[in-house]
Every structure is written in structure tokens, then in C-alpha cells.
Design brief:
Layout lengths: L1 H16 L1 E8 L4 E4 L2 E5 L2 E5 L6 E7 L6 E6 L2 E2 L1 H10 L7 E2 L3 E5 L5
Parallel strand pairs: 1-9
Antiparallel strand pairs: 1-4, 2-3, 2-5, 5-6, 7-8
């Protein structure tokens, strides 16, 4: 019985840790920078294990368009992490996750 409880605890902590979001731009194909580091081009799938409330600075660059600056943040309630927190009665700092996707509109240069 103790092994089952331990496995459940580990499962709920692992499920609540990582959060993934798709970062898209309109038009697609923009260079993506997160916190100043180049990550790739949009659409891009971002995953991390940051705690609740984390914000990441987003910069998008595409020829013929103004550079876009914005942010992504872990702000949506994670039901598995919430259930795990209730069952274990230990506060979990990963209870919030990223929305499934962000789509940023880029403005064309004149």
C-alpha cells in the first residue's frame, strides 16, 4: 500500500511539473526569442518546468514586419496538479500551466 501511495505522489508531481504551449505568429515563420535567446521559428512548441506565475519575454522578428514584443505566462489551472495537491496535502508550485497556444499578430512595415 505504501508503494502505491508513493507512486501516486510521484505521478502527480511529475504531471504537474512540465507545461507546454504552442507559440504561433501571423504570418508564420518569424524568428522566436524567449528571454533574449533564439529558440527557432514559429510555430514553435515550448515546454518548461517553471513554477506558477512564470512569465517569459517573447520577441518575434520577420523580414518586412515590425519586431513584436510580448510575453507568455503560466496562468491556467492544471487540474492534475490540483488533484495531486489535494490528495497529498502539500502545496505544489506547478499548479498553473501555460495556455495551449499563443498566437501573436505581427504588423507589416509601411
Amino acid at each position: 500500500m505504501k508503494k502505491i501511495i508513493l507512486l501516486m505522489v510521484v505521478f502527480f508531481f511529475l504531471v504537474g511539473c512540465a507545461s507546454t504551449t504552442a507559440i504561433k505568429s501571423n504570418p508564420p515563420g518569424a524568428k522566436l526569442y524567449l528571454a533574449g535567446q533564439e529558440k527557432g521559428v514559429t510555430p514553435y512548441t515550448h515546454t518548461d518546468t517553471s513554477p506558477a506565475g512564470t512569465r517569459r519575454q517573447v520577441t518575434l522578428k520577420l523580414d518586412g514586419y515590425k519586431d513584436f514584443n510580448g510575453e507568455i505566462r503560466r496562468s491556467e489551472l492544471s487540474v492534475p496538479a490540483l488533484v495531486g495537491t489535494c490528495l497529498v496535502l502539500v502545496p505544489v508550485i506547478w499548479i498553473l500551466e501555460y495556455p495551449p497556444q499563443y498566437t501573436f499578430e505581427m504588423e507589416k512595415l509601411k
